[in-house]
């Protein structure tokens, strides 16, 4: 998971998105990949994500689903 890329993509995002991102990152840090995937999918469902935010989340989901760090 590229936390730096995610944080860069969400810099300046609305506070609600920041909260969702922090929750997803927190779950990912615990090593619970299934729950982390759920959290990032929840974040991805927000229609107001920018293309850069969407791409960062999608990249993270691919890595998590492949079991990559």
Please state roughly what percent of the residues sit in beta strands, choosing from under 5%, 5-15%, 15-25%, 25-35%, 35-45% or over 45%: under 5%
Shape annotation: globular
Number of strands: 0
Q: Uncertain regions: pLDDT < 50 for 5+ in a row?
A: none
| Helix share bin | over 70%
Task: Round the Cα radius of gyration to an integer and report it.
Answer: 11 Å
Q: Structural class of the helices, strands and pairings? A: mainly alpha
The profile of the biggest β sheet is: none
Straight-line N-to-C gap: 5 Å
Give, in order, the helices and strands: HHHH
Mean pLDDT level? 92
The number of helical elements comes to: 4
Count of individual domains: 1
Structural overview:
With 69 residues, the protein is mostly helical. The chain has one domain. Helix content is 74%, strand content 0%. The termini are close together. The mean pLDDT is 92.
Summarize the structure.
The protein is built from four helices and no strands. The chain has 69 residues and is mainly α.
């Amino acid at each position: 998971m590229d936390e730096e890329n995610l944080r860069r993509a969400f810099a300046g995002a609305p506070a609600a998105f920041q909260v969702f991102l922090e929750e997803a990152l927190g779950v990912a840090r615990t090593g619970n990949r299934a729950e982390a995937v759920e959290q990032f999918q929840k974040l991805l469902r927000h229609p107001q994500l920018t293309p850069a935010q969407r791409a960062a989340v999608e990249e993270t989901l691919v890595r998590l689903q492949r079991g990559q760090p």
